[in-house]
Specification:
222 residues, DNA-binding, homodimer, Tetracycline Repressor, domain 2, elongated, 11 helices, Arc Repressor Mutant, subunit A
Amino acid sequence: MHKSTQSAATRVLENDQPVVRRRGASPEKTALTRQSIVDAALAEFLEKGFANTTIETVAKRAGVAKGLIYRYFVAKEALFSAVVQQEIVNAHIDVDDAKRAPNESVEDFLRRTLVVSIYAIEKKSRADIARMVIAEGSRFPAIAEIYRRDVIDPLLQKVKRLATAARKSGELENDRLVKNPYLLLAPIWAGIVINKFLDRAHPVNIGELFEMQLDAVFAKAP
Amino acid sequence: MHKSTQSAATRVLENDQPVVRRRGASPEKTALTRQSIVDAALAEFLEKGFANTTIETVAKRAGVAKGLIYRYFVAKEALFSAVVQQEIVNAHIDVDDAKRAPNESVEDFLRRTLVVSIYAIEKKSRADIARMVIAEGSRFPAIAEIYRRDVIDPLLQKVKRLATAARKSGELENDRLVKNPYLLLAPIWAGIVINKFLDRAHPVNIGELFEMQLDAVFAKAP
DNA sequence: GGTATAAATGACTCAGCAGTCACTTTTGTC
DNA sequence: GACAAAAGTGACTGCTGAGTCATTTATACC
């Protein structure tokens, strides 16, 4: 068999190397167009939510025609999924428990790393991503699932490991945090809900609330 | 001027006493019909959210015709508001700080009252009401506002008063809870978000989480 | 410049659904 | 039973917006 036929491959849909000699626009330009659509969609979804965002508006914002969006995404749902998944990658909170110095207390380590991340949550629209996942979570269980797997679970695991270490070293006097790592993380989700859904007018300072929680969990009386 | 004219009063729209001699169905039956619409709407909104609920379906579920709903509620939004407001009244969590026994510690009082309420949150669909308020909050700021005013703020105030009392009596060794009553309440909202939006498969026990928080905040080392 | 291929367009189709309204039924009053 | 007034009906209207597709434009290769 010779390498003829099998030519009508749409590049948009497959990302393998072009075996057949290419025609049309460069893959770079295609990628840029795709990205501009995703960016516009993100902005629209953040502003208006899934149901109230129209493909027409996304197209206008991206500076392309409506029909083009359907070349890149088979349906509105697919666009939404792509947008959120891209953002979830960035939402990942970085607390690498392996980086704790040998003689550093768990509490100090958390203050040095996690607290900083938390203060940054409200910037970089991480909280808004969480808001979106929450708001559309019941319509898109798959997305909530991804968020849980990629953002929440790793965080829970790290806290659990740290808590176990702190328990062993005697830094923690009880098993509460080992048993339920959500104890430490609860203020994050509570803060997001309060600030983004329930009381935009009087937002709580999530970083501050989290530090208080750290104080309370590590039983420090000031 | 004599009391003639001004007769075409639709009873549905005004709830004053019937000055003019009444015709048509009894106010009781009218109220029942209205209630059956609200009940059906609640169920539908809980199942599918605002955008995915159709008036047609609500009507079918209530066993009435579509048009009738518009006799009772001017628009879909108005129906939603009515439904949620009715439920918010029931969502009110009962922790009357005046009922604390003179020599009862604040912690004991909270365990006796609030913890019980919290364990009951997941029953009676209070958590589902919260879920709805959160999910539709950005589309209905007015409803989030009502929820905040009628459910959250009173709770915050009570916790603050109790915390102040505990601080005076020496039961609390720091000002954290006085400064930010959300510290105690955070697990509630976090729990709702986790259970209703992010991880339906592995729900946390909100009551348990809340008790842990109580332990931590009141610095009890078991 | 000619040609093949893919990108891009936007007018159009079609479905769903909020809200309307002319009509029917029920209820109470005399 | 006759009437008036309100409750209740459901076919219909009009609009919005997702998704399609025939056509046009851009790009690459010869």
